[in-house]
């Protein structure tokens, strides 16, 4: 046993090397001691750290890890105020212990817990006191020993995570004591680690791994199967890649698709590998799509996979699942962790053209996919290409529809809301390109079959104040002058009309009474957690002081809501908007899920498509357009399954021009009020029909229909901003 027979490179880069297979596994299998200083502690990071050490444990070896707590701003402030650092550190570590997502991960945590109990694995916690610097220790070094006294040391940018090994552009520099010129550097890194382990480093505090955190791992020991032994993880050390060739699409070990997912894939195959998966949020569209990739490759033996999602954060979510399906994607967008993604994509396309590789995967945003660079490269691909478009309704727009390459033989659209509101041509274009629906798995079925949580629905009615109503009527008159009916009977609106429609929709979204109504409605939840408040991208304006067509005056609704909740009601809230970075959003999601410190998220549109925060239990929707896509997506955000969430609650703020008992059917406001009521009714009916308390919504629906003489089949008017693409 030793390093003498191994080929050890001077350095490894993820864009050139399989660092797991080429470095970690062969070295650790020859080792008896592993010392590693890594990044932030979490249960998921601990699981990743476990992968690769099975060979070392089998040798009777020992492991020493130094980790760092992820301190919140509140933690740092408390330490600065003199509160006991140890207790705060323990709390920070405990909140990073998350419920594992698979039985394999549970087994790994159980195995690690046993290794800690048996003294094989030792963990210490290092942090820099906040009054010294930033409160985080984030060094990354490793020292590994074989049984012959040889050492290998390495340092670099890489953490031990799936993203670091397979997606990010990361590198390590390696020093080998068998190489004469490396010996001093090896000893220096060894001394650095040992000095830190012994808490001899100035301005760095090192604590023993807290017992309270260790105790959080103990329950997982029951998942440790006695007949597995240490060999159980031997073949899984390459990050649970399937036993097929790395990069070839494969169903992850331990994953079984549901019957409805397999049925959808079979229908797609039968339809020539073209079609639409119309599936409600939370029913597994991503896994169904990736399952289709696996089947397509099995049948075609050669496949270029292009996956397109609207936003960067959705691409990142796709990457996590793509890796599980054994693929190593090239990630294309402006802030991609793969800084050389353009070169990677060019190489992939060329290698695929020349037959050097049989498959590759490129995942990108709508914007990057539409760029001239990407379009030119992908145009070189042909019949062996599969295009998957997530949230495919977006591609019904004129600009994006022009990027649907007719050369791509295999096509798959994913969407919970494929039909484009007010745009039948765009909807038809999508169906013509992608094909027919292979599955229609709606919200009602998803709730009935336990894929989404049931919910209670409470409409909260508010009314326009006098200045808002006058402004609303004025805009309605101007809009009527910007519309005309074509010879074919189609309603058209001018560009100015679209802007006026948008301005009018903002009056409804930002109605002043909504703030007082929110205060009254949310007061009983003042001490509750896991709440979401959806605001409009609008301002609360005093129209008696402004008669222009702009919306520049007044306070933003999200600001007014934040003042109400944070200042007046003393609730702990945070924003979730386009102003927060992707990293900040991830921290917000994690802390919100733990209800520490945030009780509520105040959001605008960026939560609409694809962001998963299952722990939301109560939602207050202050603003919705009449576009079903938007309000269906917003409802879907609230219905994700989560522990201790038997149901969700939705408060929907409905705007009418005046109380129903004040409506005069012969008054000048009647026609205007009726049109608005019809538009609001569509959402109330959709939300109310499958709610647990459907009768509560029915009472309001009946009252509105009676007062405004609206029949069941009486649709709303056409003057809606989203309907015309504004």
TrEMBL record:
<dbReference type="InterPro" id="IPR050615">
    <property type="entry name" value="ATP-dep_DNA_Helicase"/>
</dbReference>
<dbReference type="InterPro" id="IPR006935">
    <property type="entry name" value="Helicase/UvrB_N"/>
</dbReference>
<feature type="domain" description="Helicase C-terminal">
    <location>
        <begin position="517"/>
        <end position="682"/>
    </location>
</feature>
<dbReference type="InterPro" id="IPR001650">
    <property type="entry name" value="Helicase_C-like"/>
</dbReference>
<dbReference type="Pfam" id="PF00271">
    <property type="entry name" value="Helicase_C"/>
</dbReference>
<keyword id="KW-0347">Helicase</keyword>
<protein>
    <submittedName>
        <fullName>DEAD/DEAH box helicase family protein</fullName>
    </submittedName>
</protein>
<feature type="domain" description="Helicase ATP-binding">
    <location>
        <begin position="266"/>
        <end position="436"/>
    </location>
</feature>
<dbReference type="Pfam" id="PF04851">
    <property type="entry name" value="ResIII"/>
</dbReference>
<dbReference type="InterPro" id="IPR014001">
    <property type="entry name" value="Helicase_ATP-bd"/>
</dbReference>
<dbReference type="InterPro" id="IPR027417">
    <property type="entry name" value="P-loop_NTPase"/>
</dbReference>
<keyword id="KW-0547">Nucleotide-binding</keyword>
<dbReference type="InterPro" id="IPR025202">
    <property type="entry name" value="PLD-like_dom"/>
</dbReference>
<keyword id="KW-0067">ATP-binding</keyword>
<dbReference type="GO" id="GO:0004386">
    <property type="term" value="F:helicase activity"/>
</dbReference>
<dbReference type="Pfam" id="PF13091">
    <property type="entry name" value="PLDc_2"/>
</dbReference>
<keyword id="KW-0378">Hydrolase</keyword>
């Amino acid at each position: 046993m030793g390093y003498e027979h191994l080929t050890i490179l001077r350095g490894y880069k993820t864009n050139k090397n399989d660092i797991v297979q080429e470095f970690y596994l062969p070295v650790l299998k020859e080792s008896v001691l592993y010392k590693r200083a890594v990044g932030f502690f979490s249960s998921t990071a601990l699981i990743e750290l476990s992968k690769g050490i099975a060979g070392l444990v089998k040798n009777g070896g020992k492991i020493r890890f130094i980790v760092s707590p992820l301190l919140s701003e509140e933690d740092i402030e408390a330490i600065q105020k003199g509160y006991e650092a140890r207790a705060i550190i323990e709390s920070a570590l405990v909140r990073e212990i998350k419920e594992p997502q698979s039985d394999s991960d549970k087994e790994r945590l159980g195995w690690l817990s046993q290794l800690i109990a048996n003294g094989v694995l030792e963990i210490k916690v290092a942090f820099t006191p906040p009054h010294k610097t930033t409160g985080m220790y984030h060094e990354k070094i490793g020292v590994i020993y074989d049984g012959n006294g040889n050492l290998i040391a390495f340092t670099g940018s890489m953490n031990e995570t799936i993203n670091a090994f397979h997606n990010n552009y990361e590198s390590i520099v390696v020093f080998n004591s068998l190489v004469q010129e490396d010996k001093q550097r090896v000893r220096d890194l060894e001394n650095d680690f040992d000095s830190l382990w012994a808490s001899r480093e100035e301005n760095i505090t090192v604590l023993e791994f807290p017992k309270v955190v260790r105790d959080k791992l103990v329950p997982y020991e029951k998942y440790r199967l006695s007949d597995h032994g240490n060999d159980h993880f031997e073949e899984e050390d390459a990050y649970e890649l399937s036993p097929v060739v790395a990069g070839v699409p494969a169903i992850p070990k331990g994953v079984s698709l549901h019957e409805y997912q397999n049925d959808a894939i079979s229908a797609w195959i039968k339809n020539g590998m073209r079609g639409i998966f119309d599936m409600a949020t939370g029913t597994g569209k991503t896994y169904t799509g990736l399952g289709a990739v696996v089947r397509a490759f099995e049948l075609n033996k050669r496949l270029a996979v292009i996956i397109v999602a609207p936003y960067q954060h959705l691409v990142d979510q796709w990457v996590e699942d793509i890796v599980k399906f054994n693929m190593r994607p090239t990630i294309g967008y402006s802030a991609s962790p793969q800084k050389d993604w353009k070169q990677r994509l060019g190489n992939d396309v060329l290698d695929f053209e020349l037959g050097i590789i049989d498959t590759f995967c490129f995942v990108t945003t709508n914007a990057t996919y539409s760029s001239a660079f990407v379009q030119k490269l992908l145009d070189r691909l042909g019949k062996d290409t599969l295009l998957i478009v997530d949230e495919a309704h977006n591609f019904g727009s004129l600009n994006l529809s022009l990027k649907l390459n007719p050369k791509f033989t295999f096509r798959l659209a994913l969407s919970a809301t494929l039909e484009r509101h007010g745009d039948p041509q765009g909807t038809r274009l999508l169906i013509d390109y992608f094909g027919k629906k292979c599955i229609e798995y709606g919200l009602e079925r998803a709730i009935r079959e336990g894929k989404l949580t049931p919910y209670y629905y409470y409409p909260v009615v508010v009314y326009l104040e006098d200045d808002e109503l006058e402004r609303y009527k004025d805009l309605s008159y101007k809009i009527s002058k910007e519309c005309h009916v074509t010879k074919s009977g189609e309603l058209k609106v001018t560009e100015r009309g679209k802007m006026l429609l948008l301005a009018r929709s903002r009056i409804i979204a930002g109605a002043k009474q909504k703030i007082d109504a929110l205060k009254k409605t949310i007061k009983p939840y003042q001490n509750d957690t896991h709440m979401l408040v959806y605001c409009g991208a609008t301002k609360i304006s005093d129209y008696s002081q402004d008669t222009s067509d702009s919306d520049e005056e007044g306070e933003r609704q999200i600001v007014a809501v934040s003042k109400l909740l944070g200042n007046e009601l003393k609730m702990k809230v945070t924003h979730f908007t386009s102003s927060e970075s992707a990293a900040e959003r991830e921290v917000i999601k994690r802390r919100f899920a733990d209800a520490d410190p945030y009780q509520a998220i105040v959001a605008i549109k960026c939560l609409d498509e694809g962001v998963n925060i299952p722990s939301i239990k109560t939602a207050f929707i202050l603003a919705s357009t009449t576009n079903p896509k938007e309000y269906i997506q917003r409802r879907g955000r609230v219905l994700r399954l989560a522990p201790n969430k038997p149901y969700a609650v939705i408060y929907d703020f409905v705007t009418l021009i005046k109380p129903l008992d004040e409506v005069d059917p012969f008054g000048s406001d009647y026609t205007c009020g009726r049109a608005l009521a019809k538009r609001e009714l569509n959402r109330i009916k959709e939300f109310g029909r499958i709610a647990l308390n459907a009768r509560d919504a029915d009472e309001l629906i009946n009252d509105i229909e009676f007062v405004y003489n609206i029949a069941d089949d009486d649709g709303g008017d056409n003057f809606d901003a989203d309907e015309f693409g504004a």
